[in-house]
Amino acid sequence: MITKNTKIEDIVKMDDRMMDFFNENKIDYCCNGYMTVAEVAKSKNKDEDTLKNSIEKQLDILRQDKKTDSKISIDDFKKLSVEEIIESITNEHHETERAMLFEIDKILNKILKVHFKNHGEELLKLHKMFGELKTELEEHFVKEEMITFPLMIENKNPSPEVIKKIEELESDHEKAGDIIKKMISLTDSFTVPQDGCKTYEKTFKELDTLTKDIFVHIFKENSILFLKFKK
Ligand SMILES: [Fe+2]
Ligand SMILES: [Fe+2]
């Protein structure tokens, strides 16, 4: 049952297909997953009951549609140990996102040049934001893999030192999340302009896939891995 005090991250844990619903409604379930339905409604100047009802309605629809093609399966993921979660995140998200960042970097640079005349203003901003995101994430992944994740595996009981490292990661997540939100708003959720070519389409499609994957990734770290470790 959902109340106005239910946290957004807990709704995703009930049914991970709610991630799509939250993405469509621009509700941040990863960096701000700790916010309650009422808090989100307030931040968006929306009515609490309307938001609560629309979430319940969507959960009902999903409940009736038991068939799930979601490969995320947060339900199984929650049950893994800290070591297993770390391994899964590294293999599933870090490696995939590194490859996507590398690929998008090339094609974004290509459309920047080809479509500069008609879309230069937007593409220059997007190119800069993407560059910041790429640097942020590549450095963040390596910090997790080389410093914080090994510390978490070695120290079963959370020491103040490890907690501090985790807080640094959470603040990196917020930075990355903010850049992504700006990219989404700049491009109207990666909508390709009418005169956009195939490469334009591919770039925006890949950006959409990448950013959604990052949201899932951050959710798994903030709302499952870090919470589990701190317990
Ligand atoms: Fe990560
Ligand atoms: Fe992270």
Q: Tell me the overall shape.
A: globular
> Quick one: how many beta strands?
0
Q: What fraction of the residues are assigned to beta strands by DSSP?
A: under 5%
Helix content: over 70%
Number of separate domains: 2
- As a whole number of angstroms, the C-alpha radius of gyration is 19 Å
Bound molecules: fe (ii) ion
**Chain-averaged pLDDT:** 94
- Can you tell me the CATH topology of the largest domain? Four Helix Bundle (Hemerythrin (Met), subunit A)
Major sheet characteristics: none
Notes on the structure:
This protein has 231 residues and is an all-alpha fold. The chain has 2 domains: 8-64, no CATH class; 80-230, Up-down Bundle (Four Helix Bundle (Hemerythrin (Met), subunit A)), CATH 1.20.120. Helices cover 76% and strands 0% of the residues. It has helices at residues 8-14, 18-24, 37-43, 48-64, 74-78, 82-114, 116-154, 160-186, 198-230. The longest helix is centred in the middle third of the chain and has 39 residues, at 116-154. Bound molecules: fe (ii) ion (2 copies). One fe (ii) ion binds next to helix 7 and helix 8. One fe (ii) ion binds next to helix 6, helix 7 and helix 9.
